[in-house]
Design brief:
The chain has 261 residues and is mainly α. The chain has 11 helices and 4 strands, in the order H-H-E-H-H-E-E-H-H-H-H-H-H-H-E. Helix 2 packs across helix 4 and helix 5 packs across helix 8.
């Protein structure tokens, strides 16, 4: 079965024009995924203004699925509506991301503590399976940035899931979705790939040996380092995207507002 991402790519014609195919994916999901990707890849910048009418025309759909997609993006904290079908990409809120990273650290350090203590709900087989991905020689490491970013998400989500608290897992999955816009930049434009492998392997070793204190310390440093790096990269990428005259907005952007960060 094809993934959602693959099915979405199948709906893009060779000339680059987007046309939704209801046989592959629902129209709101299609529009949501394409707009979200444009935001994540900084083709849509904070302050860019769009309208439901222009988006509907561009994607070849009615305004109803467009409105549903935009409302979903608003729930993600990525878009905000103002008047008469107008919407704006929200500024990146570094305080909000800082709060999310703090929550992430609380959840993940608690998860590794439970795993090291062999808590009765812990599913250690899930943790052992991660070693096949992260405890590997250099030649077997994933060097593709987007793929490595996805593997990184799976690593952290699996640790939380393995701890056995379903409510904590659901909260962490939502948190992961909200920080993805900045977190993936570290793998696309940073230099974290090999250090991520080393740090993940060290955390897994501590869990395997039951060294709770060391595992928590390593996880804390791992998350703090990632947070600092993505803040720096995000600011740099936003300034670069504004400065490059070749960085034209997508055709459906009504107004590009020039803002400083």
């Amino acid at each position: 079965m094809k993934s959602v991402a693959t099915r979405l790519e199948d709906t893009v014609r060779e000339d680059g024009e987007h046309r939704a195919d209801p046989r592959n994916v629902s129209l709101p999901e299609y529009v949501y995924a394409r707009l979200r990707e444009d935001i994540f890849d900084l083709r849509l910048l904070p302050g860019d203004q769009i309208t439901e009418t222009e988006i509907a025309a561009f994607f070849g759909v009615s305004r109803t699925p467009v409105r549903q997609a935009l409302q979903r993006l608003q729930g993600d904290g990525l878009m905000q509506g103002y008047v008469r079908g107008g919407w704006e990409v929200v500024p990146i809120d570094f305080k909000r991301f800082s709060d999310l990273y703090e929550l992430r650290k609380l959840i993940e350090t608690h998860a590794v503590r439970r795993l090291c203590a062999r808590h009765e709900t812990a599913e250690l087989a899930l943790v052992d399976a991660l070693r096949l991905v992260w405890c590997v020689p250099l030649a077997l490491r994933e060097l593709d940035g987007p793929k490595a970013a996805l593997q990184d998400e799976v690593f952290h989500q699996t640790l939380v899931r393995a701890a056995g608290n379903q409510e904590m897992t659901a909260t962490f999955d939502r948190l992961t979705d909200r920080i993805r816009i900045v977190r993936r930049l570290d793998f696309l434009y940073g230099d974290c790939l090999h250090s991520t492998y080393d740090e993940h392997a060290a955390i897994l070793d501590c869990i395997a040996s039951g060294d709770s204190e060391r595992a928590i310390h390593l996880m804390d440093e791992h998350i703090e380092g990632s947070h600092a790096e993505v803040n720096q990269i995000t600011l740099h990428r936003l300034h670069s995207a504004r400065a490059l005259s070749s960085n034209k907005p997508p055709p459906y952007v009504a107004v590009r507002v020039r803002r400083s960060f």
